């Protein structure tokens, strides 16, 4: 590759607003808006002082975690979160692969592209807690609502990134496969899959990590997992039990982070 592909000196990026007057006006307007927005925040200082005392008790409980008093509830919640995490990630990835293929502009017909992009947009437009509330209202409290929530969120996450990776593939390899008279399935299998598979595996491992952390959040609204146990402990002011739960969550996330990092390096 020639050296011309790399710039040898820094260049100022092009300005979106070329007029100096409008740049100053927009900057001043943004500062005024920020000040006015901060002024609308109502701070209850008495509640803040009361919260500081609660924070002290929580920190004390965090430093002296209680793993034994509610050990059964804790381990049931952890097992439920891990089950939800694994199953939702597998199902979500399996569903997101055809959707990601359909959402890639360079290999999918326009009608299929629009449908798949719409599915991804709907999945990404709603935060997991909102989706969990909806599924809890439909199917009741428990892990099934959490499983559906995390699967739905995984579809939008993996589907979008997979589609973008497919659109950024080396077209020369794909064109070589097309030149042999290969079918669409053969094109995907031999021209696209080798280029995006390492990235897909890495994204799936990353989503597995995200789903475990999200399982603790959606459990607060009744979608199963350790979040429900954590919410109960906080509601009863059992900060030592809550501290134990948080430490377990942190430990599992750290193990998953290091494991996924090792696997990604191995796959590269």
List the SSEs and their pairings:
Layout: H1 20-39, H2 45-63, H3 71-102, H4 110-125, H5 128-139, H6 143-167, H7 171-179, H8 184-218, H9 226-235, H10 239-267
Helix pairs in contact: 2-10, 3-6, 3-8, 3-9, 4-6, 5-6, 6-8, 7-8, 8-9, 8-10, 9-10
**CATH homologous superfamily identity:** MetI-like
Q: Within the CATH hierarchy, at the fold level, what is the topology? A: MetI-like fold
Residue share in helix: over 70%
Count of discrete alpha- or pi-helical segments spanning 4 or more residues: 10
Tally the beta strands: 0
**Tell me, what's the shape?**
globular
Q: Regions with pLDDT < 50 over 5+ consecutive residues?
A: none
Kindly state the mean pLDDT as a whole number? Answer: 84
Proportion of β residues? under 5%
Estimate nothing, just give the exact number of structural domains. Answer: 1
CATH class: Mainly Alpha
Q: N-to-C terminal Cα separation, in Å?
A: 22 Å
Q: In the CATH hierarchy, what is the architecture at level 2?
A: Orthogonal Bundle
Q: Characterize the largest beta sheet: strand count, sense, and whether it forms a barrel.
A: none
- What structural class is derived from the secondary structure elements? mainly alpha
The succession of helices and strands, N to C, reads HHHHHHHHHH
How big is the Rg? 24 Å
Pfam families: BPD_transp_1
Main location: membrane
Membrane topology: Multi-pass membrane protein
Protein name: Phosphate-import permease protein PhnE
């Amino acid at each position: 590759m020639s050296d011309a592909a790399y710039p040898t000196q820094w260049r100022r990026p092009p300005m979106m607003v070329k007029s100096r007057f409008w740049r100053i006006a927009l900057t001043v307007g943004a500062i005024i808006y920020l000040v006015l927005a901060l002024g609308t925040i109502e701070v209850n200082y008495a509640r803040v002082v009361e919260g500081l005392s609660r924070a002290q008790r929580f920190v004390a409980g965090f430093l002296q975690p209680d793993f034994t008093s509610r050990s059964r509830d804790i381990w049931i919640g952890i097992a439920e979160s891990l089950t939800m995490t694994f199953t939702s990630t597998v199902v979500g990835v399996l569903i997101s692969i055809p959707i990601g293929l359909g959402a890639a502009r360079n290999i999918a017909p326009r009608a299929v592209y629009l449908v798949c992009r719409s599915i991804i947009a709907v999945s990404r437009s709603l935060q997991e807690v909102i989706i969990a509330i909806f599924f809890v209202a439909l199917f009741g409290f428990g892990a099934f609502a959490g499983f559906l929530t995390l699967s739905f969120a995984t579809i939008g996450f993996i589907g979008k990134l997979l589609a973008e990776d497919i659109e950024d593939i080396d077209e020369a390899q794909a064109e070589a496969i097309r030149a042999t008279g290969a079918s669409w399935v053969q094109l995907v299998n031999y021209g696209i899959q080798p280029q995006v598979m390492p990235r897909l595996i890495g994204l799936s491992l990353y989503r597995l990590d995200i789903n475990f952390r999200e399982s603790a959040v959606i459990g607060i609204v009744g979608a199963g997992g350790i979040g429900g146990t954590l919410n109960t402990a906080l509601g009863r002011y059992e900060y030592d039990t809550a501290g134990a739960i948080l430490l377990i969550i942190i430990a599992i996330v750290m193990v998953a982070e290091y494991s996924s990092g090792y696997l990604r390096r191995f796959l590269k």
